[in-house]
Amino acid sequence: MSEEDLWSTVDGYVAERLIGTDPDLEAALEDSARAGLPAIAVSAPQGKLLHLIARSISARRVLEVGTLGGYSTIWLARALPDDGTLVTLEIEPRHAEVARANLDRAGVGRLVEIRVGPAMESLSTLAQQPADPFDLVFIDADKEHIPAYFDLAVGITRPGGVIITDNVVRGGALADATVADGRVRGVRAFHDLLAARSDVEATTIQTVGSKGYDGFTLAVLNAR
Fold first, then answer.
1. Which of 15, 34, 79, 201 is the most buried (most CB within 10 A)?
2. Which of 176, 218, 183 is nearest to 201 (CA)?
3. CA distances from 75 to 46, 124, 182, 191 (A)
4. Rounded CA gap, 140 and 77, in Å?
5. For residue 72, what is the DSSP state?
6. CA 51/CA 213 separation, integer angstroms
7. pLDDT at residue 209 above 90?
């Protein structure tokens, strides 16, 4: 058995024991695939991790950058109270359409606002609108713009709030300064940004699983 097959097997074991069968989540993945969306949603164990982090901080307002088919959105929305709010940003109208159907079927659509358009524009608009700050932000979008997304997210997140950024290890390329790939340069610039900031504490965790070898960054905002 290859390493990749072993990672997927362990993910399957964890999902079977700790997550179980969830028709709405499975349907979200199936409908996303049927609509031609890329198969890049978080895994079930990763989705549950997002859910548990949101619950652990009693999140009431969540921001997601990168909706895709709404799989991770469902996990996050399920952690919210009945009067909670999740704003999710998606550049592709077709993706947003698929996500809306998936969210409504899962019974969380009333908690979720999908904003369609470039994430930089949507984030800038959110920063200019009077509203309570977010408790949790999940950034899972194009890696070239991760530093800019993070900068804008900090300004609309409460002190003590959490910002999670996905897919930042890039199969280990994060540590290779010679890689020219724009996505790798983006996540390296993101780590440079984190190292230079005094208003956040952060760490990056490597992960393996059905999605391969990658990792995520968890940042907590210090008091301003």
1. 79
2. 218
3. 10, 25, 29, 27
4. 16
5. H
6. 21
7. yes
Joined tokens for residue 50: 């997002």
Parent domain of 80: 3-221
We report the CATH number of the domain holding residue 57 as 3.40.50.150
The whole-number pLDDT of residue 131 equals: 86
Strands 112-116 vs 134-139: parallel, antiparallel or unpaired: unpaired
Mean pLDDT rounded to a whole number for the chain: 97
Domain tally for the chain? 1
- C-beta atoms surrounding 50 within 10 Å: 24
User: How does pLDDT run across 144-165, given as a tens digit for each residue?
Assistant: 999 999 999 999 999 999 999 9
The answer to whether 164 touches 217, Cβ cutoff 8 Å, is: yes
Task: Give residue 191's Cα distance to chain centre.
Answer: 17
Closest CA to 140 of 64, 80, 71, 194: 64
* Closest C-alpha among 168, 171, 197, 202 to residue 185: 168
Torsion angle (degrees, nearest 10) of CA 100, 152, 174, 140? -10
Burial class (CB in 10 A: 0-12, 13-18, 19+), 208: middle
pLDDT at position 142 over 80: yes
78-89 average pLDDT score: 98
Residue-level pLDDT at 130: 83
